[in-house]
Amino acid sequence: MFRINDNFTKLPASYLFSEVARRVNAYAESHPGADIIRMGIGDVTRPLCQAAVDALHKAVDDEASGETFHGYGPEQGYSFLAEKIARYDYRKRGIEIDIDEIFVGDGAKSDTGNIGDILSTANRVAVTDPVYPVYVDTNVMGGRAGDLGADGRWSEIEYLPCTAENGFVPALPVNNPDVIYLCYPNNPTGTTLTRSQLKVWVDYCREHGALLLFDAAYEAFIREEDVPHSIYEIEGAREVAIEFRSFSKTAGFTGIRLGYTVVPKELKGLDDKGNKVALNGLWRRRQTTKFNGASYLTQRAAEALYTEEGQRQVKETIDYYLENARILREGLAEAGYETVGGINSPYIWLKTPGTMTSWEFFDYLLDRYHIVGTPGSGFGPSGEGYFRLTAFNTHENTRRCIERLGATDRK
Ligand code: MLT
């Protein structure tokens, strides 16, 4: 009889956010009157901005006429969008990225998960802890994680703790990993690294021949000066880093899906004969084979975000969420919670009170206040005793959330 991929059977029964949704739905069913405020998964609440809506309508009209109809597009994305990305997301910041180094996809979750296809299963992986669970789970699926220990750690993954003790700044690895995942602004802690802190990682990767998988999905939330928007702001990063970007949180594309991945041409890894091979070509081969391109409609909508009007509207939306982050940060402090994040990020990471575990606090918040967040331990062992709230709800619900916790927005 055929065999399955046994690695899947090693995974916890469900993905973190599916488990949160399952518990919340069960609670809602048994408490029909409960007015639940959802601040769990980082899903947005603001509608698409007008520039994107107009572009979508226009793109639908294009598809309605034989003359302007688009069928299969280029698997790596239309050049009309890649050109805007290269110009506005990179050249404007003094970074040169060629359009054939940009691969438009259906979101950073898929790309950070799929990138393992082009990497040897023999690579040793390091992740910050806590971490976006997709990096770990997809390495389990790919056979790079070893076995799950009683301490919640996978035997072959190196964990780089980010805790209050080290100011949520990960130390460099000690086991010489081949692949390192970093996400900044960080999901889940909402913290950032400065230019000089990020340089340490790029230098490390150059020295050790390691690949840096840099997830910049939350870059649009950066408001402080010394926080790089792209890993390529750091000298030498083109030789070692792949960058993932997303339109989900930037422009409310969680439902319509779009992101992109940058694979610089200088970036090379070894094959089994010791030859250096460019990852750009491998990722292109992977995408052209397994992916048929993001939809024409979505790419036209994203293109419109780069117009003057689009940029203004995107900033307005991000400012809206950052205001929620401020309300949460200040309100939680007033209610006696210790928090980090929420300055250049939509995520607030808070210490659970007393000795409560993350899941105990989840149940407590849900049952007592009808507030949903995400238990820190779901993001990794060092997340135990922490909890994540998102700033993606409405102003009104965000204020109601802190009022339920005994605080008021004083602004
Ligand atoms: C999160 O809540 O961490 C994210 O929304 C999940 C995602 O982007 O896939």
Structure description:
The chain has 411 residues and is α/β, with parallel strands linked by helices. It has 2 domains: 13-42 and 309-404, Alpha-Beta Complex (Aspartate Aminotransferase, domain 1); 53-306, Type I PLP-dependent aspartate aminotransferase-like (Major domain) (Aspartate Aminotransferase, domain 2). Helices cover 36% and strands 14% of the residues. It has 13 helices and 15 strands. The strands form 4 sheets. A 7-stranded mixed sheet has the order 2-8-7-6-5-3-4, sandwiched between helices. Strand 9 and strand 10 (276-278) form a beta hairpin. Helix 5 (108-114) runs parallel beside helix 6 (133-141). The mean pLDDT is 97. The structure holds D-malate.
What low-confidence regions span 5 or more consecutive residues with pLDDT below 50?
none
Helical content, roughly?
Answer: 25-40%
Seen as an oligomer or otherwise, the chain set is single chain
CATH class of the largest domain, named Alpha Beta
Distance between the termini: 66 Å
Q: Approximately what portion of the residues adopt beta-strand conformation? A: 5-15%
